[in-house]
């Protein structure tokens, strides 16, 4: 079954990582995959663009079905392989609603983290402004407070949407993992760091850990002064 699945991915990309976690949780080990380089712009190759005209990762191919967006790929895997592995979307309407809410809210956390952590990468030198970076940091701090509150409400030892590991965690963990890697002070988001410590050794996450993170466990300190 997994042999009919092909994943094109890039190391360290949160969208790619979440699809890989979903594959592991659905017990689809043994799927085919191709690691490509962002630096070499391999995501813009003809091979990838033939499947994904946007030239982006991840690209998931299951038989003749191609799914490109990471949220779509994760939900496709859950719906297609619902009866095997971890149940990632609960049946209860209230629980399901919270999982979906947290899933889609992660886009806010990802963007605001990128706006600070990768500011110098994304903004040309002549266009950089201290006031803009300061504003980005303030936006990220405000966002982190929301997530701290969510985890406070669910209680110590809980996952993002309650007592069970869900698609919300599949989607969120690859973003949360950037905070300790980029040296964010623990006191800025203690609940999120507890959550990170609780999940980092989960089998699906360890099996899909970015290979270049294994080679170089620490990243730049772009979140150090948050």
From TrEMBL:
TM segment ranges: none
InterPro entries linked to this entry: Glutathione-S-Trfase_C-like, Glutathione-S-Trfase_C_sf, Glutathione_S-Trfase, Glutathione_S-Trfase_N, GST_C, Thioredoxin-like_sf
Domain annotation GST N-terminal: ranges: 3-85
Chain coiled-coil ranges: none
Pfam family, one: GST_N_2
Record-annotated GST C-terminal domain positions: 92-221
Classification via PANTHER family: MALEYLACETOACETATE ISOMERASE
Protein name as it appears in the record: Glutathione S-transferase rho
Lineage: Eukaryota, Metazoa, Chordata, Craniata, Vertebrata
